[in-house]
Amino acid sequence: MNWHHQNRFIEACLRVGVKEELAGALWPVLKRKYSESHRHYHNLTHIDKMLAALGESGQGTDEIEMAIWFHDVIYEPKAVCNEADSARFFVRHLGDLVNSSVAKSVSRLILATDPRRQRSGRADEDLLVDIDLSILGSTWNEYERYCKAIREEYRQVAEDEFITGRRAVLESFLSQPIYATVYFSKLESSARDNLQRELGNLVKIP
């Protein structure tokens, strides 16, 4: 699997103009980031599933694929600047090695995955965010594994505090349409069912 990840990452870099040796030198850095011990969901498995969803959508671009590789490269569960830091990481390592328009697009796409941002309505951003949120519309068994992985990433957070924060996240998702693209709109109903079910399971223990 590591060779699969490395080869696909290098191929993506080559398509946007990064030389193979430079992409190969960056891969161990990226791999180390996504393999940090506190990551139980935001890891290379998540990247794999996003890349698969991108392929299934038939709407991929090189910029979107690069944004997938970098969108969670910086991830600290309680931080509020992960997306901005991830965009800066991309610019720092590859910004001068790709066309300026590509660098701007990838940075913009990474920033679009910040859940605190309003949707812009731009087609590429909508597609990337829908891909990132596709886990919400999975089967209940897969969704439940996702919930447990998220809780594990917040293991240092007290139960009451976690429930309060998680409720706010779920209610925010439910307050508006979850998916903005035609392709992923088929997941809307199952995603809302999963979110409602999780919400009902978030019961504070007296």
Write the layout of secondary structure elements.
Layout: H1 2-15, H2 20-34, H3 44-57, H4 62-70, H5 82-94, H6 100-112, H7 123-132, H8 140-153, H9 159-174, H10 188-201
Helix pairs in contact: 1-2, 1-4, 4-6, 5-6, 9-10
Which features would summarize this protein structure in a list?
single chain; mainly alpha; 2 domains
Short description:
The chain is mostly helical and 206 residues long.
Describe the structure.
By secondary structure, the chain is an all-alpha fold. The chain has two domains: 1-117, no CATH class; 133-206, no CATH class. The chain has helices at 2-15, 20-34, 44-57, 62-70, 82-94, 100-112, 123-132, 140-153, 159-174, 188-201. The radius of gyration is 17 Å and the shape is globular. The N and C termini lie far apart (45 Å). The model has no long low-confidence stretch (mean pLDDT 95).
